[in-house]
């Protein structure tokens, strides 16, 4: 039995921005990220009980200026409440994104290419085992 684990961190000026504790925390994070570029780091580990392999993928995300009204409305949507850095690139916050350099799937939370390589190393089929159409 293999076990896969992954986690994502948003890093701004060397500080990790985790999941917001409350509304004010989220609004402060969004204000700090507004108009800035930041790192998103996602680590993935896979073990079969005998060996463990891991990989870390770093991406750079640039956000446009986010107004206070937009940040408050975004918080009210409920989306940022359980997201590192208080935003989800794959959700409503996509409208805040000016640019991305790196892996979109890693920013979402699971770098697909790198995860497929880990699975392959353990001889665990990914999409390759799907029946032909």
TrEMBL record:
<dbReference type="Pfam" id="PF02545">
    <property type="entry name" value="Maf"/>
</dbReference>
<dbReference type="GO" id="GO:0047429">
    <property type="term" value="F:nucleoside triphosphate diphosphatase activity"/>
</dbReference>
<keyword id="KW-0378">Hydrolase</keyword>
<protein>
    <submittedName>
        <fullName>Maf family protein</fullName>
    </submittedName>
</protein>
<dbReference type="InterPro" id="IPR003697">
    <property type="entry name" value="Maf-like"/>
</dbReference>
């Amino acid at each position: 039995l293999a076990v896969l684990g992954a986690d994502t961190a948003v890093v701004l000026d060397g500080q990790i921005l985790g999941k917001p504790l409350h509304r004010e925390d989220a609004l402060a994070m969004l204000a700090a990220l507004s108009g800035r570029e930041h790192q998103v780091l996602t680590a993935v580990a896979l073990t079969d009980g005998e060996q463990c392999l891991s990989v870390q993928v770093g991406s750079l995300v640039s956000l446009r200026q986010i107004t206070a009204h937009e940040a408050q409305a975004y918080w009210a949507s409920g989306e940022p409440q359980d997201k590192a850095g208080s935003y989800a690139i794959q959700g409503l916050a996509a409208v805040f994104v000016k640019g991305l350099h790196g892996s979109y799937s890693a920013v979402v939370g699971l770098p697909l290419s790198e995860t497929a390589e880990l699975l392959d190393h353990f001889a665990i089929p990914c999409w390759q085992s799907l029946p032909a159409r």
